[in-house]
Predict the 3D structure of the following.
Amino acid sequence: MLSIDSRPSSPSSHLMKTNPFMNEAIAEAIAAASRGEVPIGAILVDSMGKVLTSAGNRTEELNDPTAHAEILVIRAACAARGEPRLPDCDLWVTLEPCAMCAQAISNARIRRLYYGAYDAKGGGVDHGARIFSQSTCHHQPEIYGGIDESRTATLLKDFFAVRR
Ligand SMILES: [Zn+2]
């Protein structure tokens, strides 16, 4: 069950197999796939453990190459709060963020980043540009990758297997 404590600092709580927050992100990824989008989902959680916003990719629907799940949840939460930064919030996403999203996460001052599958081809956190490791990056969240990795990776594999 979802604990009130939204700061899962012990490995056992944030890396457990069926994390409720990652489950919500996965549900958004599945919904995105049903819309013909690449199945990536994200949610933003505040310090009270409340889910502020959730979204899946909408690049095809909106004809917008920046409409990644992470960007959509950050935009929606900032708009709802009327604030350009979310320093008390944690972002959960099913795939390692790309460089664009990593920079947006930094700009938004997100507190913690939890992501699912690693993305050696398009990731910008632990691969590629490694945005948070650059001297030009002025805010680095705490980062926890590989959460629920087999399920989140399978989502993408299945999606692209059908398309090919
Ligand atoms: Zn992205």
Q: What stands out?
A: Residues 1-14 have pLDDT under 50 and may be disordered. The helical segments are 11-14, 20-34, 59-62, 69-81, 99-107, 149-163. Strands lie at 41-45, 51-56, 90-95, 112-117, 142-144.
